[in-house]
Amino acid sequence: MPDFDMTIGGERVAGRESFDVVNPATGQVFAAAPDCSDADLERAVSAARTAFAQWRTDERGRREAMREAAARIESHARDLATLLTKEQGKPVREAMGEVLQASEWLRHYADMESPTEVLADSAHARIELSRRPLGPVAAITPWNAPVGLAFWKLAPALRAGNTVVLKPSPYTPLTTLRIGELLADVFPPGVLNVISGRDPLGAKLSSHPAIRKVSFTGSTASGRKVAIAAAEDLKRVTLELGGNDPAIVLEDADVETAAAGIFGSAMTNVGQICVAVKRTYVARAVYDDMLAALSERAKSVRLGNGLDEGVTHGPLNNRPQLDRVTDLVASAVDAGARVVAGGATVEGPGYFHAPTILTDVTDEMPIVSEEQFGPALPVLPYDDLDDVVARVNASPFGLGSSVWTGDVERGGDIARRIEAGTTWVNCHLYLLPSLPFGGVKWSGLGVENGVWGLHEFTDMHVLHQNLLPGNAWS
Ligand code: NAD
Known about the structure:
By secondary structure, the protein is of the alpha/beta class. It has helices spanning 38-55, 59-75, 77-88, 92-111, 146-160, 174-182, 199-206, 220-231, 255-267, 284-299, 319-334, 366-369, 385-393, 408-415, 450-455, and strands at 6-8, 11-13, 17-23, 28-35, 117-121, 125-133, 136-140, 163-167, 192-194, 213-217, 236-240, 245-249, 277-283, 338-341, 356-359, 376-382, 397-398, 402-404, 424-425, 437-438, 440-441, 444-445, 447-448, 458-466. A 7-stranded mixed β-sheet has the order 14-15-16-13-12-18-19, with helices on both faces. Strands 9-8-7-10-11-22 form a 6-stranded mixed β-sheet, sandwiched between helices. Helix 3 (77-88) crosses helix 4 (92-111), helix 3 (77-88) packs antiparallel against helix 6 (174-182) and helix 4 (92-111) runs parallel beside helix 5 (146-160). The longest helix is centred in the first third of the chain and has 20 residues, at 92-111. The protein binds nicotinamide-adenine-dinucleotide (NAD).
């Protein structure tokens, strides 16, 4: 089995214990990852703390190291993508896109300016606002897009002058560990530490007193625990959590375009995307056509091992997630839902579930009201637009959302009424390093990306120079 090490203080650390990593396309263990001990966690945090003193002062060095890191990742992109497919399951072409996203985000933030702002400059006072890094920060990532989401955190954190301890999900630690090894001589020792372990390691890291911020992406349940742990000593937190994104299809939408866009964003990575379409509300006039168009697409996917040529959709990442999706579909069917495409797991090895389209569903069924995070899309008709906006907003989640229409102005008017971090009109899942991304309600706290994402890794400092003789009150 190939070896994977943690990177702590610039050194490769094998760890005393390890845990197995399974290839979801085969269901077989294919590698092991180090299980970080308490002592190694202490070393990682201490290395990040020591490195912070110098790293925060060297803005030019930070930009250069980030550009070098981007190039290093690119030059190993093929191997990294293959590894990502083996541990995560997505088709290798998508894995390649995710790996290259790391370089894109690094370059974007390396080029980003964050100048000191002059708030007042008069005969009375000069007041300026600057942004300061926080110190050692924790970055904790889920298993659906471990590389891309890691760099949504690392790039702004490092650019702002913080040092990082990064912990990937135990289901998908390997590509992140490999990237840590590859970048060990790009950043000064201790600037980027990568450790691996099970969920309790995340809890220990997020409650560690030397960690000044936790940037967390994962489930709402774990995000709550992170917030509670961080509250103890008022660490900063950014929480990117679950979603239950609605798509609303108006009666004037082009059915084929809407079906292509909705199916694509609902089923990419077999639905394991926080901001995938997870429930679709369709105007009664075009409901039958939409259902048919979505079903046709579901029936035409090529499900298989993401390493194989021509495969369009891979397995779910892990057994519990496969079981969850299977149970949600079964419980919907028991309650009266009808399967129009897919509907079942695939016999044989691996964690495969056919892309599934469901009709005759209600808002009360868990497949609609909860986050399925898998390839099962409920499609519901509506008659009244105000009513559907209310139903959409009744969810405790508020991550993404979309409106599909032939009239973008009208789409914009409806979009403004939706409670979500982002509402797209005639697209979904369109993410850029320059745009803020985050959720409202149970979907999160704070944002990632853009200058707003950079600022989340800083505290503000106001410098107020009084230019009048005496003080302001004399
Ligand atoms: P998860 O919450 O189980 O795990 C995420 C990470 O947190 C893992 O590294 C895990 O080891 C760690 N962790 C678990 N318990 C912890 C604790 N108490 N303290 C600190 N860390 C802890 O989530 P998952 O199952 O890996 O990912 C799927 C979820 O992530 C879905 O709900 C999905 O919507 C969400 N997600 C959100 C976004 C977003 O940007 N909003 C992006 C991707 C995924």
